[in-house]
Amino acid sequence: MTLVLGVETSCDDTAAGVIRRRPDGACEILADVVWRQYDRHAPYGGVVPEIAARSHVERVDQVIVHALEKSGHIPADLDAVAATAGPGLIGGVMVGLTAAKAIALAHDKPLIPVNHLEGHALSARLTEAAPFPYLLLLISGGHTQLIAVAGVGRYRRLGSTIDDAAGEAFDKTAKLLGLGQPGGPRIESAAVGGRASRFRLPAPLARREGCDFSFSGLKTAVRLAAEEIGTPTGQDVADLAAAFQATAAAHLAARTGRAMDMVEADFGADPRLVVAGGVAANCAIKAALKELADRRGWRLIVPPPKYCTDNGAMIAWAGAERLAAGLVPSLAEALAFAPRA
Ligand code: KG4
Ligand code: ZN
């Protein structure tokens, strides 16, 4: 049994989780505490790095203490402490990593610096048996990538966004439609009563080879359609949100289909597609990917929404996976680990 505390502070969520990795490789989530800073950033229409960093300083210790209490453990019980070491907003990364370093040092535990993207990449294995290899579609606020995952620490990037990330496109489009933040869930709710077919938005990169993504043209197309209306009513906004969401979902599925072509030969008889990152919480996107996976004979694995968005459990789990794979730096190396922006 391996008990790991994970700390995540790379964006606007102050999060800590405690997990146990069983000898058979299964995960038990003992605690998962997330303090979301939405309200503090909402007046500015997006995440303000300075406010995020200050908010993490204010709450990170309480969130960690709460997670440990919920897990029924004290720091002395831990086998390791993991923390997001980048990429992310540097002020926030420094807060969480320094808090984790302090706990590791005080209790003489290994510190495992975790790359935030690796946290998302392995998050499906928190709640399901998702054996390697798999194709990962990582769709978050800062990243949109297709990655062939061969094992812990063995990642091959097949495609990524050439402009905005998927979540960023949801957030910017929500802002221009006056829906506020967080944009992804607001667009998804607004789209429920909308008719996607009312607007013909261009499919991004329709004639481009490979499996890169693009979202900025789609966001501009929504802006132009909204400007043509003048002052969009509630129904106009719903229709625009639905059209944006449907086009984004179709684009994600189309590019993922191309990545499947690239790896299918190496993936055996039971190929798997794993989706992770905050945007994976979106039902329309999940439905488009399910349709793709079913049509191609692939298994689709999507973590529950609370493990798709940023959380401490996925960082703890990535730490435990690294520990099990023998990929842990020494405490001295770990303490010297420089966070990256
Ligand atoms: O993974 P995450 O929590 O943080 C990053 O690492 O970026 O992802 C946050 C992103 C935000 O852009 C948010 O708008 C988006 O995920 N998101 C969604 C939904 N829920 C969160 N996008 C679309 N539909 C959703 N239901
Ligand atoms: Zn994230």
From TrEMBL:
<dbReference type="GO" id="GO:0061711">
    <property type="term" value="F:tRNA N(6)-L-threonylcarbamoyladenine synthase activity"/>
</dbReference>
<keyword id="KW-0963">Cytoplasm</keyword>
<feature type="domain" description="Gcp-like">
    <location>
        <begin position="28"/>
        <end position="317"/>
    </location>
</feature>
<keyword id="KW-0808">Transferase</keyword>
<feature type="binding site">
    <location>
        <position position="282"/>
    </location>
    <ligand>
        <name>substrate</name>
    </ligand>
</feature>
<feature type="binding site">
    <location>
        <position position="184"/>
    </location>
    <ligand>
        <name>substrate</name>
    </ligand>
</feature>
<keyword id="KW-0819">tRNA processing</keyword>
<protein>
    <recommendedName>
        <fullName>tRNA N6-adenosine threonylcarbamoyltransferase</fullName>
        <ecNumber>2.3.1.234</ecNumber>
    </recommendedName>
</protein>
<dbReference type="InterPro" id="IPR043129">
    <property type="entry name" value="ATPase_NBD"/>
</dbReference>
<keyword id="KW-0012">Acyltransferase</keyword>
<keyword id="KW-0408">Iron</keyword>
<dbReference type="GO" id="GO:0005506">
    <property type="term" value="F:iron ion binding"/>
</dbReference>
<dbReference type="InterPro" id="IPR000905">
    <property type="entry name" value="Gcp-like_dom"/>
</dbReference>
<feature type="binding site">
    <location>
        <position position="188"/>
    </location>
    <ligand>
        <name>substrate</name>
    </ligand>
</feature>
<feature type="binding site">
    <location>
        <position position="310"/>
    </location>
    <ligand>
        <name>Fe cation</name>
    </ligand>
</feature>
<comment type="similarity">
    <text>Belongs to the KAE1 / TsaD family.</text>
</comment>
<dbReference type="InterPro" id="IPR022450">
    <property type="entry name" value="TsaD"/>
</dbReference>
<feature type="binding site">
    <location>
        <position position="116"/>
    </location>
    <ligand>
        <name>Fe cation</name>
    </ligand>
</feature>
<dbReference type="Pfam" id="PF00814">
    <property type="entry name" value="TsaD"/>
</dbReference>
<dbReference type="GO" id="GO:0005737">
    <property type="term" value="C:cytoplasm"/>
</dbReference>
<dbReference type="GO" id="GO:0002949">
    <property type="term" value="P:tRNA threonylcarbamoyladenosine modification"/>
</dbReference>
<keyword id="KW-0479">Metal-binding</keyword>
<dbReference type="InterPro" id="IPR017861">
    <property type="entry name" value="KAE1/TsaD"/>
</dbReference>
<feature type="binding site">
    <location>
        <begin position="138"/>
        <end position="142"/>
    </location>
    <ligand>
        <name>substrate</name>
    </ligand>
</feature>
<dbReference type="InterPro" id="IPR017860">
    <property type="entry name" value="Peptidase_M22_CS"/>
</dbReference>
<feature type="binding site">
    <location>
        <position position="120"/>
    </location>
    <ligand>
        <name>Fe cation</name>
    </ligand>
</feature>
<feature type="binding site">
    <location>
        <position position="171"/>
    </location>
    <ligand>
        <name>substrate</name>
    </ligand>
</feature>
<comment type="function">
    <text>Required for the formation of a threonylcarbamoyl group on adenosine at position 37 (t(6)A37) in tRNAs that read codons beginning with adenine. Is involved in the transfer of the threonylcarbamoyl moiety of threonylcarbamoyl-AMP (TC-AMP) to the N6 group of A37, together with TsaE and TsaB. TsaD likely plays a direct catalytic role in this reaction.</text>
</comment>
